[in-house]
Amino acid sequence: MGQDAWLGLLPGLLLVVGVILIYKGGSGWYIFRRSIYKEIYSNYVEYAMRKRSMARLSESYFLESRLGKHKIYYQLASARGEKVPQAYVVLILSSGIYLLDIKRQIGDIEANVRGDFKYETVIPGNKKEKPRIEIKMMKNPMDEVRYFQKKIFQKLHGEEVKAFPIVVFPDSSTLSWKEEQKEIPVIHRKEVYSTVKMLHENNPQVLSEEEIDRIYLAMASEVLEAERKEKSGLRKNEV
Question: What is the pTM of this model?
Answer without folding.
Answer: 0.80
